[in-house]
Amino acid sequence: MLTEAARRHYLEYGPFTYPGLYQEYFRSLPDDPRELSLLLSRQIIHRVTLAQGNAYANADLRYGNMDRWPWHRGPCEDDVYLTAPAIAAGLFRLDERGFVPDRRVEDKLVLTCRFVSVLVSSIYKAKGIPCRSRAGFAPYIQPGRSLDHWINQIWSGSDRRWITFDADGLYDGLGLPFTPYNMEAGQFDWAADVWRRIRSGEEDGARFVFADSRGTCGLRAAARYLVYDFHALMNHEISYVFQPRYMESFLSGGEPLEAERLEELDELAALLREPDGNFEALTHWWAENRRLRELSSPLT
Question: Is the pTM of this model over 0.90?
Answer without folding.
Answer: yes
